[in-house]
Amino acid sequence: MDKIRIRGGRALRGSLPISGAKNATLPLMAASLLTDGTLALANVPHLADIATMASLLAQHGVGIGIDGVAPNGGHAGRVMTLRAADITNTTAPYDLVRKMRASVLVLGPLLARAGRARVSLPGGCAIGTRPVDLHIKGMERLGARIELTGGYIEASAPHGLVGAEIIFPTVSVGATENLLMAATLARGDTVLVNAAREPEIVDLARCLVAMGAEIEGAGTDRIRVRGVDRLHGTGHEVIPDRIETGTYMMAVAITDGDVELVGARLELVGAVADALAPAGVTTEATPRGLHVRRTNGPLAGIDVMTEPFPGFPTDLQAQLMALMTTARGAAMITETIFENRFMHVPELCRMGANINVHHATALVRGVPRLTGAPVMATDLRASVSLVLAGLAAEGETILNRVYHLDRGYERLEEKLAACGAEVERIRSP
Ligand code: EPZ
Asked: Where in 295-404 does DSSP place strands (E)?
């Protein structure tokens, strides 16, 4: 398995391109199941999770093509075309779903278009139990019959889905996306109450509307969908990745660097910029993206709580914790979305961090410096937090289990190295 070697202590300088958003692309790809027309997605990132979703869709009968590269030789300009002329198989098998939970996003589109779906239950994962009960109850509200047997969700709606009011007891990004897609082809109106407001949902709704769907209120907690008989193909450009943006904002801050994040958009990371400002990190919009640098000397500890959008994202909690390890004073970081998302803490402590966890809160007391170490993590964001720590640490850090990073960060080591970091991938023989 590949490893990443980092020699810390270099400030990041220059410009760094932000890729298309993984978590926007995955539901957009699933939306291709809703039509027999061609969906052309631009700005699709080159990532392992995107490849997993492509394999899943291919085995449902979707024809997939990839075209184009960005002018800089990267993949940011990739256009993916997806055409589900016929749905040839309505089963999402265990082997693919267990690799990537977002596979469950095919449930709504398959039910809506084919009248049935058999989707493996994803099971727990490294950051928590992560049930899919809200997806299932929502589909039932739309009239689907659902049974859970043999580890699978067996869903059917032979006479089609019927619009309904669905009130989510907790905010769920995936359940909102799944129900939004299903409702586009249901008979009558659907209202999603306490819907997630993430930019990825707005992006999905924009694409669905371009496909002929009737949707109002995406980006608020109340989304209304008027079902239509059919959707058609369209072209759509994926929004920039706000989590990648936030990750590099913190990489710049932890190395006391000065970088322009090209393609990034301030409105997607408003809560992150606001949280980092009192820590001494300045984020300014430029014509091409965002300019990030430290302006007030040493970093200061800040208190942050993760929340659904527009709050501070859980997907940046681990990176913020890495940043706070060398801040002056203490920082209190509270995780409210997932119950088990502090797996990076023991690894950061092995690099010299001083962190105490009490239930859902981590108290980080800043230390003068971190020291490099061999480390590994069990999920994507925890892994990248160790990369950030390595960039600031004295000496060498070797990150194992790099496949986690490859799920969500396009060309990470190339992007960092181009800004002056000493980082390289050691390929396994
Ligand atoms: C999405 O996951 C993201 N994934 C996650 O990013 C992100 O951490 C998460 O939203 C929260 O922002 C994708 O977009 C592909 P949820 P999702 O449903 O949709 C509970 C990354 O690193 N819940 O909003 O699965 C759940 O357990 C990943 O890129 C239920 O109880 O998250 C959690 O506590 C990791 N029942 C909370 O809701 C359900 O049926 C929010 O989860 C569904 C969710």
From this structure: 304-305, 330-334, 354-358, 361-365, 374-375, 396-399
Ligand 1 closest atom vs CA 133: 40
Distances (CA, A) of 351 to 119, 257, 308, 318, 401: 41, 21, 30, 14, 17
167 neighbors 190 (Cβ within 8 angstroms): no
Q: What is the DSSP string of 305-321?
A: EB-STTSB-GGGHHHHH
Number of H helices, E strands in the chain: 14, 24
CA 269, distance to chain mean position in Å, is: 13
Q: Is the peptide bond before 310 cis (omega within 30 degrees of 0)?
A: yes
Give the span between the Cα atoms of 101 and 162, in whole angstroms: 26
Is the CB of residue 78 below 6 angstroms from any atom belonging to ligand 1? no
pLDDT tens figures, 397-406:
999 989 999 9
Phi then psi for residue 110, to 5 deg, are -65, -45
Which amino acid is present at 325? T
Residues 148/185, Cβ–Cβ less than 8 Å = no
In the structure encoding, which two tokens stand for residue 10, read together?
């270099």
Q: Residue 162 has what DSSP assignment?
A: B
> Is ligand 1 within 6 A of the CB of residue 49?
no
Backbone φ and ψ for 148, nearest 5 degrees, come out as: -105, 110
Distance between Cα 350 and ligand 1 center (Å): 29
- Please give the positions annotated as active site: 125
Tell me the per-residue pLDDT of 128-173, one tens digit each, with 9 for 90 and over: 778 999 999 999 999 999 999 999 999 999 999 999 999 999 999 9
Q: Is the CB of 408 under 6 A from ligand 1?
A: yes
Nearest C-alpha to atom 10 of ligand 1 is from which residue? 173
Q: How far is the CA of 162 from the centre of ligand 1 (A)?
A: 26
Query: pTM for this one?
Result: 0.97
- The protein residue whose alpha carbon is closest to atom 31 in ligand 1 is 131
If you measure from the C-alpha of residue 393 to the centroid of ligand 1, how many angstroms do you get, rounded to a whole number?
A: 31
Cβ(301) – ligand 1 distance below 6 Å: no
Which ligand 1 atom minimizes the distance to the CA of 136? 40
